[in-house]
Amino acid sequence: MKKIAIVAYNQSDCVSWAGATNEVELIMPVLRRVFDQVGLNNAQDVDFVCSGSCDYLQGAAFAFVAGVDALGAVPPIKESHVEMDAAWALYESILKIRMGHADSALIYGFGKSSPGELPIVLSQQLDPYYLAPQWVDSISLAAMQARLMLDQGLITERDMADVVARSRGNAKTNPHAQLSGDVSVEELLAQETYVSPLRKSDCPPVSDGASAVIICTVEKAREWGVPYAIISGIDHRIESHNLAMRDLTDSVSTRKAAEAAGVGAGSIDVAELYAPFSHQEIILTRTLGLTDKTLVNPSGGVLAGNLMMASGLSRIGEVFNRIASGEAQRGVAHATSGPCLQHNLVTVLESA
Amino acid sequence: MPPPEVLSQAFELGFTYTRSTGPVVGRFLTELRDRKIVGIQGSDGRVIVPPMEYDPVTAEELSEFVEVGQQGEIVSFAWVKEPRDAHPFDQPFAWAMIKLDGADVAMIHCVSAAAESDITTGARVQAVWAEQTVGFITDIRCFELV
């Protein structure tokens, strides 16, 4: 099977409100930067383009088509889209390359969440008969998950605050982070609850922005003469849409995806986990069997800035950055979708 | 300077089609209209409420309906201090996972309670019906602490 590499990654700043800046204007700068990293002119210089976004964020059917304006798709290009986080657009692109239909691909994800009420918008992705008509918001579902863990003694509120404090601290070195700084566990625990048992700090901020990645065959990466990291494994699994039929204190689908992606085949220097809520980082760390030897979310993760439909792709990009810079030899990136970690994608990256 | 005239027009998003809810979801919703709650037996015999069309583990088509109680136990809950406009209450309330008597799998619905301190995991609750039931999940207006 063809070896596939990541050669470029860029993400915009996570901002709480992009104002009048539209989606195309959010996407274009990150595309320019990934093209420049490789020395490409534009989307004509890759064989395939795939994007990830959510029409519900824009409130219009086929809103994603407008994103293509960022590409300059004339003369025609081969282009596709997933109504998912762009990590899954990367998955589709890998399949395209493995099938021999392309040697290189540009992947981008974008989300402008600020115009709507995100937790309520997300309620409409739930079961259309039993849950969506109740408008059960994403934060409340995560709060019930956290309480199950607290009640069973699997975590404490202090464990959750630890995750937040580390996220904010790590994010100090991430220029694109929305929330960063030194905050103590005591300060966090002193805050009142928001949707109990969650505090506001346990929840991700609402962010606007975009990210992009370029992947290609190893041969192509060598031809381009740029640093690269090899994608040695990728897999995704999904659990039932019935939340009560799942063990919400565990992530069965992440475990299966990790096994299939070969996470256990070597040591893990760095892991970037898409854990929108603090307790979910603990679930994922345990599921993936990560120890103190692994640097978890050195970017601050999505508690420091959560670009809907792009943050999963960014996790892969963040691990790539650390391998390309020589800080890490092998890393794991995780992306999630759906309520309470319903659908999970695991990618293993290794140095060339 | 007078404010500029802004052109505006009301817009209502509508879909001109009817969707059938099918033999499983439809049965559940029709029973709600009659103020009854039914679940369905999964492949392992567990009673799932609301009923699912297919078993999530075996993918078997499910068809054995079971009427369950209108009281149950809170398995987990989220206390909403500041209800959102779309939420079913203007006052603080809880979303909860509720395991009804006779059911093995919890259902998610809202619970009315005066204060967060009134509600705990394991608390007993009772379904409260809407004044008019029409065959929607919201025919159960909420659950109340027993």
Based on CA inertia axes, which overall geometry of chain A fits? globular
How many strands of chain A?
A: 12
In angstroms, what separates the terminal alpha carbons of chain A?
16 Å
CATH superfamily of the domain at 4-116 and 206-224 in chain A: Thiolase/Chalcone synthase
What's the Cα radius of gyration of chain A?
19 Å
Q: Helical segment tally of chain B?
A: 1
The CATH class of the domain at 4-116 and 206-224 in chain A turns out to be: Alpha Beta
Q: Mind describing the biggest β-sheet of chain A?
A: 10 strands, mixed
Order of helices and strands of chain B: HEEEEEEEE
Largest sheet of chain B: 5 strands, mixed, barrel
Secondary-structure content class of chain B: mainly beta
**Which strand order spans the largest sheet of chain A, edge to edge or round the barrel?**
3-2-4-7-1-8-12-11-9-10
| Rounded average pLDDT of chain B | 96
Structure commentary:
The complex is a heterodimer of chains A (352) and B (146). Chain A has helices spanning 23-38, 55-58, 86-98, 118-123, 138-151, 157-170, 185-190, 218-224, 252-261, 278-287, 311-324; strands at 4-11, 48-52, 79-82, 104-112, 193-196, 198-199, 208-217, 229-238, 270-272, 295-296, 330-337, 343-351. Chain A has a domain at 4-116 and 206-224: Thiolase/Chalcone synthase (Peroxisomal Thiolase, Chain A, domain 1, 3-Layer(aba) Sandwich). Chain A is 32% helix and 21% strand. Chain A is built from eleven helices and twelve strands. The two termini of chain A are 16 Å apart. Chain A is of the alpha/beta class and 352 residues long. Helices cover 8% and strands 32% of the residues of chain B. Chain B contains one helix and eight strands; from the N terminus they run H-E-E-E-E-E-E-E-E. In chain B, the strands form two sheets. Chain B has a five-stranded mixed β-barrel. A three-stranded antiparallel sheet of chain B has the order 2-1-3, with helices on one face. Chain B is globular and about 75 Å long.
